[in-house]
Amino acid sequence: MGVKWLMMIKIQNLRKYYETPSGTVKVLRDVNLIARKGEFIAIMGASGCGKSTLLFLLGCLDTPTYGSIFFDNIDVTQADENVRQKIRLYNIGFVFQNFNLLPTLTVLENVILPMQLANIFQHQRETRALALLRIVGLEEKKDELPTHLSGGQQQRVAIARALANQPGLLLADEPTGNLDVKTGKEIMQVLKTINEMQQVTLIMVTHDPKSASVAEKIYYLEEGSLRGTLI
Amino acid sequence: MIAFVLASKNVTRKRERSILTIIGVLLAVASTISLISIAEGLYTKVNYEINLQNVDLYILPKSTAFLPAGSIGAVGGSSFGIPYKEVENINNIPGVEVVMGITRILANFKKDTGVLVWGVEPEKMAVFFPYFRIVQGRYLATLSSGELIGGNKVVKELSLSLGEAINISNKDFVLVGTLAPVDTFEDYAFFSSLKDVMDIQQTAGVQEIWVKVTQEYRNNIEAVKQAFQQAVPTCIVKTKQEYLGEANHFVNLIRLLQYAISAIGIMIAITAAMNTMLMSTYERMKEFGTLRAIGASKYVIFEMVLFESLFLSLIGGSLGVLLGFLGASLFNEALTSLFKISVPVTCINLKLIVEAILLSVGIGVVGAIIPAVIASRIDIIKTLRWE
Questions:
Q1: CB contact under 8 A, B297 and A82
Q2: B335 - beta bridge partners?
């Protein structure tokens, strides 16, 4: 997958159904969305409405029941797992609600990890990781283990890690969900700064209107479909 | 490479569990290496000893049960024996240079010490044992009776001195010489005249007949062997290679038996390694999911689990080798208390160490395969939602 600089992401008639013993659950029904390069989009919705499912589909972690997701002109839903793994490695950065840092690695090692997976030269890895930690304000904590950091600091490390391979798309799943209001606000500011500085397309799912308000566009996921932007 | 780094970090994560796995592998490798060191020691010593002996053909009774060669037991250990007159008959076969009857017995020295005594024809010893040197005293006199020469170690262990009267299985002997060390089981044996040993054994037959043929005949040993076989149809004729083969076949059977016993320990070690890796895998599902989400391939996850298991098993294996040395010396101690003289049967050589390390690698790999497959095939979304 050679796409590095995503100009446009297009979701077309996306459906995701799950078969359960009690019948078919239609989580997403005909979701359509266009995100242009550098846009910051928030998708809001009640708990269990399918926000994370949509994010996982966008992140090439899952395949839809029907419909397509285009990264520029390439339909990534048709790609096999090997290709999707490479898209995740080179084109997508993930920020999780629970940070999901590797507890045995230091802050610096966590940020370096995606670059190691991408076989980037060692001297480049460290330079880039330190620059990212500087952006999120944690350069002095580079040798700490994640367990010694606060939730907000851990999320900053997770953001730095997500940006390690300079992805075109940053996906954030409830990035402030496990943080207090003040820290959540700081994290949103970090995300906004990165979005503006690096022109990375940022799609965030959240149920928190304050976090969503930082985005350029807000969509509401209801009954499996996206309702138009609230901004 | 990344899998290697991540695996090395995880080894110290749950120290108690890692240590238990290491102990499991350590015990399996140590017990295996200690047991196999007996077969290895027998193999090395038997081969060395037989190759040193200047024998072209071995003539054994038909009823021979092939036991390990050397002083600890005879190839051709048979209660029937070959009538001594066959030695004289064989002497008349064309091509024969020297013929000697041999009998080995385990006799009693004092009350509770077993000693090995070889009955040889004194005047022919130098031909068949060209590597023997006397360091004290002299060789057995021709037509001697009641004379003994001792292997270097047995004389030292039993604190015997030259000229000392020794009673072996109710027969009186005098120690007339001590051999220089030769690093074979012969170091732990006495040598006396064949007649004296046959008296102790109270048989008229010899256990083996050793033949040295002339150079001309040695080049066609198989044909000579056939001629001998026809001349002594009541006996079995073996070339040196065949004799060695029989001895090694027996040693290999011992080795196989020891591997079978060790297999129990190995299975336990594999179970321990697998249990550790399975527990560790299930605990880290979310971590594997995260790694997959940020772009790690299935192969990286598989390698990570595999390397982790290999680290533990290699640490256990290396420590097991060290403990194996201790185990092997304990086996020697046990033999010492059995025979009252030390007979270092065990041998841990480089080959055995490499085998032990490969065994620990095998334990690590087998123990890790199922956990590694599980970890690499995780459902990424399920694991990311794992709380």
A1: yes
A2: none
| DSSP code of residue A228 | P
Count of helix runs (H) and strand runs (E) in chain A: 7, 10
Letter for the amino acid at B171? K
Euclidean distance between CA atoms B334 and B338, whole angstroms:
6
Full DSSP string of A142-160: TTS-GGGS-HHHHHHHHHH
Backbone angles phi, psi at B319, to 5 degrees: -65, -35
Q: What is the C-alpha to C-alpha distance for residues A146 and A104, in angstroms, rounded to an integer?
A: 8
Cross-chain CB nearest to A61 (options B1, B291, B293): B293
How far is Cα A160 from Cα A139, in angstroms, rounded to an integer? 11
What is the pairing mode between strands B189-193 and B113-120? parallel
Above 70 in pLDDT, residue A122? yes
Beta strands in chain B, from DSSP E residues, in sequence order: 57-61, 65-66, 75-77, 82-83, 96-109, 113-120, 134-137, 147-150, 165-168, 171-179, 189-193, 205-206, 208-213, 235-239
Q: Taking the mean position of all CA atoms in its chain, how far away is CA A124?
A: 24
**A19 vs chain B: nearest CA distance in angstroms?**
15
How far apart, in Å, do the first and last CA atoms of chain B sit?
29
Residues in CB range of A56: below 8 A, 6 or more apart: A62, B380, B381, B384
Shortest CA distance from B301: residue in chain A: A117
Give the pLDDT band of residue B66 (cuts 50, 70, 90): low
Q: Please tell me the distance from the alpha carbon of residue A95 to that of residue A93, in angstroms, as a whole number.
A: 7
Q: Which residue has the tokens 């390698």?
A: B303
In sequence order, what are the beta bridge partners of B105? B117
Interchain CB distance below 8 Å, A104 and B296:
no
Report the alpha-carbon distance of residue B278 to residue B297 in Å, rounded. 20
Report which of A223, A227, A230 is spatially closest to residue A48, judged by C-alpha positions. A223
**For position A10, what pLDDT does the model report?**
92
Q: Report the C-alpha gap between B266 and B260 in whole angstroms.
A: 10
Q: Which of A62, A89, A102 sits opposite B287 (nearest CB)?
A: A102
Q: What ipTM goes with this model?
A: 0.92
Mean pLDDT of the region B175-188: 90
**A161 CB within 8 Å of a chain B CB:** yes
Q: Provide the Cα torsion A84, A88, A94, A99; round to 10°.
A: 90
Both tokens assigned to A72: 């520029």
> Between A and B, how many residue pairs show a Cβ–Cβ distance under 8 A?
66
- The answer to whether A66 and A13 have CB atoms below 8 angstroms apart is yes
Please state, for a pLDDT cut of 90, what percent of chain A lies above it.
67
Indicate whether B231 pLDDT > 90: no
d(Cα A122, Cα B5) in Å, to the nearest integer?
A: 14
Convert A84-139 into a string of H (helix), E (strand) and C (coil).
HHHHHHHHEEEECCCCCCCCCCCHHHHHHHHHHHCCCCHHHHHHHHHHHHHHCCCH
- AA letter at A197: M
Query: If you ran DSSP here, which 8-state letter would residue A229 be given?
Result: P
